[in-house]
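Every protein is a chain of amino acids, and every chain bends into a shape of its own. The fold becomes a row of whole numbers, each drawn from a learned catalogue of backbone shapes. The protein below has been through that process, and both of its lines are reproduced in full.
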Amino acid sequence: MLNEKYQILLDQYDICANRLRRGRGGILCFAGHDVYALAQTSLSEERLLAVSEWTKTLRAAGFPYTDQYVVNKSGCFLTYDKYYESFALRKTFSGPECDIHSLKDLKNASRTLGSLHKISSDLTFSSDNLRKYTSVYKHYQQKYSEMKSIHRFIRGKKNKGTFEYRFLEYFSEFQKQMETALEILYESPPSRTGWCHGTYNQHNVIMGEPEPAVLHFEHFFYGYPILDFYYFLRKVLEKNDYRFAFCETMIKSYTREFTLTRKDFRCLYGLLLFPEKFWKISNQYMSHKKHWISPRYINKLEEFTISKELRTIFLEKYIQIYNVF
């Protein structure tokens, strides 16, 4: 059944897959020594072209371990099934994902990210289908405004439940963190601009040999590389109870390839201080129907508030170790 469903799509490409298996978000296709990933996509033909050209540019510049979108027999990146749903095929890598609990894996993944930023900092790339990140401060100011709107909505709601009461209980504390973070981000913007992966996390790093492979450049943009590192670091810390050894290992490995200034360390502190998980959960709450709150949102909120003491200890140690003030 699995083969029948995707065979019509694969027949539109110049590959001969002899084995298929399910992968993250799609199907992995094995053709000799090559591995391909076929998955549904919402991206446009123009955006896929930009991503393809960017990964080719990276490969030519000395960063060869990236996936690559493949055109079909018609010379297009988008392929359609009988329901006119769009799919795209990537030549990719097989192997274990970066283990978010392994210091060894995180050390290699952080070094690879630093190498990616170092190599891409010297690259020029032009496309009509690119977005630019103009200001870290403005981006988080927008998130703060959204949080104040959510607070007004929940405070004025008549029939409050567990989620709403929990939100109101901790909002004042997190509001102070957001305001302090905004002051820091305003005073200490990142020192360097450059090309960013956009979604660098453990799922997009394959721990292969001789080097890790980096996948999914669909959200690449020109902005501030430190955002890539922050995004990855925050995910790791949340999954490892804010243990400082993970932060120290990742920063040391990353900065061996791509240096950070004292201003960058201060900016990174501002990013880490902003309670982004609180914003994310609250935003998800607002995006769904309010007559029934999923226990998943309540559990996520409680997990984050329970970990706030560990987070506070981590942030205090970060200030001491990296002398940000």
